Amino acid sequence: MKVLLFEPGKLAIEADISGDLKSMQSIVGGMIEVTYPFNEQAAVVCNDEGLLMGLPLNRKLNDYMVIAGTFFICGIDEDSFTDLSSDLMEKFKNEFLYPQIFFRVGDNIVAVPYAPK
Fold this sequence. Notes:
Layout: E1 2-6, E2 13-16, H1 21-28, E3 32-35, E4 42-47, E5 57-60, E6 66-68, E7 71-77, E8 80-82, H2 86-96, E9 100-105, E10 108-113
Antiparallel strand pairs: 1-2, 1-7, 3-4, 4-7, 5-6, 7-8, 9-10
């Protein structure tokens, strides 16, 4: 399955992964959680307890969603995961390519992209 893979502190990369549960759990480092924060046919698959486990913050995807630990974005087709389309791969890569540095400002978490060396 073609996905966009995000590791903390690294550029997002295209990856080809096995779509079975055990493989997905191995990638995210634990039980998976699936969220649908986009209007497009795409899902975020991450560690269900990433924040509770203290995994490094990775990306802020919208105003309220901060993902901790490794995660990936895949396509969805009715009730199953599928390849992320090339159009969505480019869209999300352009939007979330660079890792982010996180700051707390009052009650908010602010994420600033940076280009690693």
